Amino acid sequence: MKKQSQFLKKRLQHLANKEQVKEAFNWTELEYNTFQYELGYAFLNFIFPSDDPMYQPYVKLYEQDRLYWRWWIAEWNVWQNTTLAIVNNRKMSMEFFKEDMHMMLEADFIHASFQNHYLKYLQFELNESRSKSSKKEVKKALKVA
Fold first, then answer.
1. N or C, which terminus of the chain has less Cβ within 10 Å?
2. Neighbouring C-alpha atoms within 13 Å toward the C-beta of 28
3. Which pLDDT belongs to residue 132?
4. Does residue 73 fall inside a structural domain?
5. Is position 37 within any domain?
6. Which residues contact 73 (CB under 8 A, 6 or more apart)?
7. 92 by DSSP, 3-state: which?
8. Whole-angstrom Cα distance, residue 87 to residue 97?
9. Containing domain of residue 100, as a range?
10. Chain segment 74-118, per-residue pLDDT in tens
């Protein structure tokens, strides 16, 4: 039998965790995903205060960015895995789970990850995008000339 990769093991663990939470609280896929989205959106409003109009374009930008959501779900999975490991197959209340997951919003290492992983990768993506569009413009200009 072929050995599972670390990536596949983690992916299967995250899916099992998701199913465990959905089953524990009798949540549908939509309810689980909605809670995950609401916390991701709350994180954006935590780091970019929603009462300040200056920050709203950032919230809107990141809220619609697929890379942000990939980053958020990766962080969510790690946090959720730790939460479920702490509970260790004991009955978990929905209040405890929601409260623990909300603690992500203020966790220093989540903020550090946002700055050191997501924003750096986003900058890389933007530079790559600019580079590709510049190359296209140069090629287009050369064809015209």
1. N
2. 3
3. 57
4. yes
5. yes
6. 36, 40
7. coil
8. 10
9. 6-107
10. 999 999 999 988 887 678 888 999 999 999 999 999 999 988 888
Rounded CA-CA distance 104/14 in Å is 17
Q: What type of residue is 18?
A: K
In sign, the C-alpha dihedral spanning 129, 38, 101, 51 is: positive
Residue pair 50/105 in contact (Cβ under 8 Å)? The answer is no
Number of Cβ within a 10 Å radius of residue 7: 8
Q: Which residues contact 17 (CB under 8 A, 6 or more apart)?
A: 77, 80, 81, 84
**What is the total count of domains within the chain?**
1
Say what the pTM is.
0.76
Residue 103: the pLDDT is: 93
Identify the pLDDT of residue 131. 55
pLDDT, tens digit (0-9, with 9 covering 90-100), for 43-86: 999 999 878 889 888 888 889 999 999 999 999 999 999 998 88
